[in-house]
Specification:
The protein has 650 residues and is mostly beta strands. Helix content is 10%, strand content 28%. The chain contains 11 helices and 31 strands. The structure holds MU-OXO-diiron and calcium ion (3 copies). One calcium ion binds next to loops.
C-alpha cells in the first residue's frame, strides 16, 4: 500500500567524496588502510583476509543462478522450491479454504494465513523429530487492501470502510503458528494441530516493561509484523514495524501532539486526504476508535514494540516487551553473553534512524528447571539497559545508554514536563532519546544477524535516497543500492559499550560505470539488502527488497527480481541462490536443525510499480504461486530442499 513505502529513486550521476570508497579495488585499498580494517584484521571473518575460492567452497558449493525476470521462484540446479503456506491457506488443514475471488469473510481470515509473509522461525516440538515435524511461526507484515477484497477498496470516503472489511484487514496482520510435517518423499505440508493459531490485530496482548507506567498492562493486537527473532527459551519475537499505517483520522482539524511528532506520526497529515484512487492508510479508525489519532485515548503508544510469543502454548498471551524500545522494529537478534546476560540487537527501519542494543539485567541459565516459555522473558526482557549505536569515522563505535540523565537525555522534572524523560518515556519516545544521545543516523537499518562463531554482528542498510550528510558508516550520498555494515564488540563481549566496525558489502553492480554506485561484491550482485541471517554453518543469507517502483528501471535493469544470495563473510564472495516472481520481495528464512530444509517467504508477489493493485485484474503483474487459475497472487512460505537430500548450500 502506498503509505507503507519508502519510494526509491533512479540513481543520478554523482562523483563526490564517496567515489574512492566504493569502487571495488579502491574500496579494498581504502578500507585495508583504515583503522577499521586494521582493528578487525585479527579476526578470521575479516573481508579481504582470504579471498581464495577454495575457502568459500568449504562454506557453499551450489551453482549460482542468473538474475531473473520470470514469474516464478528459481533455485539452483539440484534444488527444488515447493509452496507450503500461502495467504488464505487454512492454519490447521480444517479451517475454511481460500476463495480465489478473495470473498472469504473476516471470520475465515482469522483462521487462515495472513498477508505479507515476512520474518519466521522454526520451533521443535518436544518429543518429535525436528527434522520431520515442527512449528513454523510466520509474520504477516502488511495488507494489500485491494487484493484482500473482491471489490478492492470500495466504498471510498466519505463513505466509511465497512466493519466487516476492517475486521478482515485486521485479521490479515499478525502472526501464524502452524504445525508442519515432512513426508517420506521429502515434501512438507501444514497438518492439523492443537497448537495452530492466528494472532491478529485484535488478539488480547499483555504489555510489560517500563512503558506500562504510561500505556498500561494490556491491549489488543500486534500489527505490521516485519522481521523476527527467537529466544533460547524457545519463544518467538515478532517485531512491529510500520505501525504508523494503522493510525489516522478523518478529522481534518487534527493536529499531532508533540509526542506523536517525536515518533514521526505527524506524517499522518495525508491520511485524511483522498488523492485520485489512492486511499490513505488502512482506514481501520473509521470503525475502531482506538486507531483514530484524534482520540486522546488512541492506541498509538501501544504499538511499535517487540512482542514475545510462546509458540508451544496455544493458550499463552503474547507480551509486548517495552524495555526493548519503541520504534519501527525490523528484527530482534538475540545472543547470550558469557556471563548469562541476554543481548538483543535491533534496527529501526526508516531513513536516518538508528541501531539499538538491549542488555538484560537478569541472566539466563539454561540449566535451570524452567527453560521454556515466555514467562522467562518477564524476568529477562523486562529489565535492562537500552543502548543506541554511534559509528565513529576511525572505525570504532560506542553504545550510548538511553536513560534519563545520561548522554544528554534530560530527566523529567515534573509530571507535565514534556521535554524530559523518565524510564517509561525512554521506552516510548525512544527515537527522540536516541537523537538527543547523538547516535549515528543510518541508511534504514533492516535485519541484524550475528555470526555463529566469530560473534561479528551484521546489519543491512537497505537504501537511503535522501541522506543529507554522508559519514563513514553511511558513505553514499544517494544510497539507492544499500550496504551491509558489520562490527565486533570489544573483548568479543556482547555487553561491551564499545566496538570496532567496517563496511562489509555495498549493493549495486560491480561493473557500474560510476564508482559512486559500484559494488565491492565478489561474485553475484544485488541491491537493497534487507533480510540477513546466518545459518549455523556460517553462511550469511542476504535477501533483497528493491522497491517495485525501481525493479527493471534504469540503474536496476540488470539486477532482475528480488533475490536471496549466500555470502562468505571471510572472502566477501556472493552467490545468487534464489530469485522470486514478479513484484515480490524475498524475506524471512528458517531451517530445520539438520539444515536440509529451508523455509523462505515470498512477500507481495504481483505488487505493481505504483503499488496499486487492480481489483478487476488482480493477476495483471503476477500469477504466482498458482498460475492463471489461482485467482490472486499470494504471499507464501516456500520450502527449499536438495533433491539428493543434502544440506542447503552444499
Ligand atoms: Fe519490514 Fe524494514 O522491512
Ligand atoms: Ca524488511
Ligand atoms: Ca525493506
Ligand atoms: Ca515488502
Amino acid at each position: 500500500m502506498q503509505s507503507q513505502k519508502n519510494p526509491e529513486q533512479t540513481p543520478q550521476p554523482l562523483r563526490d567524496l564517496i567515489a574512492s570508497a566504493v569502487s571495488r579495488r579502491s574500496f579494498i585499498h581504502a578500507v585495508a588502510g583504515s583503522a577499521a580494517f586494521a582493528a578487525l584484521s585479527d579476526l578470521p571473518g575479516t573481508l579481504g583476509a582470504d579471498k581464495s575460492d577454495a575457502r568459500t567452497d568449504d562454506l557453499f558449493r551450489f551453482k549460482g543462478i542468473p538474475p531473473s525476470s520470470s514469474d516464478t521462484v528459481v533455485v539452483p540446479e539440484g534444488y527444488v522450491a515447493e509452496v507450503l503456506y500461502r495467504w488464505g491457506d487454512p492454519i490447521d488443514g480444517q479451517s475454511p479454504a481460500f476463495k480465489k475471488d478473495a470473498s472469504n469473510s473476516a471470520a475465515d481470515q482469522e483462521l487462515q494465513a495472513g498477508m505479507g509473509h515476512d520474518g519466521m522461525e522454526f520451533f521443535a516440538i518436544p518429543g518429535e523429530d525436528p527434522n520431520r515435524r515442527g512449528l513454523l511461526a510466520v509474520n504477516h507484515e502488511y495488507t494489500d487492501q485491494i487484493l484482500l477484497f473482491p471489490d478492492g477498496l470500495a466504498p471510498l470516503p466519505p463513505d466509511p470502510m465497512p466493519k466487516e472489511k476492517v475486521r478482515k484487514s485486521m485479521a490479515s496482520h499478525g502472526v501464524s503458528i502452524v504445525e508442519i510435517e515432512r513426508n517420506d518423499k521429502g515434501s512438507w505440508s501444514v497438518v492439523p494441530s492443537k497448537r495452530a493459531r492466528r494472532i491478529t490485530a485484535d488478539t488480547p496482548v499483555r504489555v510489560s516493561g517500563p512503558a506500562i507506567d504510561k500505556v498500561g498492562t494490556s491491549t489488543r493486537g500486534t500489527v505490521n509484523n516485519c522481521a523476527a527473532g527467537r529466544t533460547p527459551w524457545q519463544t518467538y519475537l515478532t517485531c512491529e514495524e510500520n505501525f504508523q499505517g494503522i493510525f489516522g483520522t478523518n478529522d481534518t482539524t487534527f493536529q499531532p501532539s508533540t509526542s506523536q511528532k517525536a515518533y514521526g506520526l505527524d506524517r499522518f497529515g495525508f491520511f485524511y486526504k483522498i488523492d485520485g484512487n489512492k486511499v490513505p492508510g488502512y482506514r481501520w479508525w473509521e470503525q475502531e476508535p482506538r486507531f483514530d489519532l484524534s482520540r486522546s485515548d488512541n492506541d498509538s503508544e501501544r504499538f511499535g514494540y517487540v512482542v514475545e510469543i510462546d509458540p508451544l502454548d496455544p493458550t499463552s498471551v503474547p507480551v509486548k516487551r517495552t524495555a526493548l524500545g519503541r520504534f519501527r522494529h525490523e528484527n530482534a537478534e538475540l545472543t547470550v553473553a558469557p556471563d548469562g546476560r541476554v543481548v538483543v540487537y535491533m534496527g529501526d527501519d526508516e531513513m536516518d534512524q538508528y541501531v539499538y542494543k538491549f542488555v538484560s539485567e537478569g541472566k539466563w541459565n539454561p540449566n535451570a528447571n524452567q527453560v521454556q516459555g515466555a514467562r522467562i522473558g518477564d524476568g529477562i526482557l523486562d529489565r535492562g539497559k537500552l543502548y543506541v549505536a554511534r559509528f565513529d569515522a576511525d572505525g570504532t563505535g560506542r553504545w550510548l545508554e538511553l536513560a534519563p540523565g545520561l548522554n544528554g537525555i534530560p530527566t523529567k522534572q515534573t509530571k507535565d514536563d514534556s521535554h524530559g524523560f523518565d524510564a517509561a518515556e525512554i521506552c516510548t519516545r525512544t527515537r527522540e532519546a536516541a537523537k538527543i544521545a547523538n547516535a549515528t543516523p543510518m541508511d534504514r537499518p533492516e535485519w541484524i544477524s550475528i555470526h555463529p562463531t566469530s560473534r561479528e554482528v551484521y546489519v543491512s542498510l537497505t537504501n537511503n535516497k535522501s541522506r543529507h550528510a554522508t559519514d563513514a558508516a553511511n558513505p553514499r550520498a544517494n544510497n539507492v543500492y544499500g550496504h551491509i555494515v558489520r562490527w565486533k564488540e570489544d573483548n568479543n563481549d556482547p555487553t561491551a559499550e564499545s566496538f570496532r566496525w567496517q563496511v562489509f558489502l555495498f549493493g549495486g553492480n560491480p561493473t557500474h560505470e560510476d564508482p559512486a554506485y559500484r559494488s565491492n561484491a565478489q561474485g553475484d550482485f544485488f541491491a537493497c539488502p534487507d533480510g540477513l541471517k546466518f545459518d549455523p554453518s556460517g553462511i550469511l543469507w542476504i535477501q533483497t527488497d528493491m522497491s517495485s517502483s525501481v525493479i527493471g528501471k534504469p540503474g536496476f535493469a540488470d539486477i532482475g527480481h528480488n533475490m536471496m544470495l549466500a555470502a562468505d563473510p571471510s572472502t566477501g564472495t556472493t552467490r545468487r541462490f534464489l530469485t522470486g516472481p514478479r513484484g515480490c520481495e524475498i524475506t524471512g528464512m528458517a531451517m530445520t536443525p539438520d539444515r536440509k530444509t529451508m523455509f523462505v517467504n515470498i512477500q507481495h508477489p504481483g505488487e505493481p510499480a505504483d503499488d496499486l493493485s487492480d481489483p478487476a485484474e488482480p493477476m495483471k503483474v503476477s500469477q504466482w504461486p498458482d498460475g492463471p487459475d489461482g485467482g490472486r497472487p499470494r504471499s507464501a512460505t516456500v520450502v527449499i530442499r536438495k533433491l539428493d537430500g543434502g544440506t542447503i548450500g552444499s
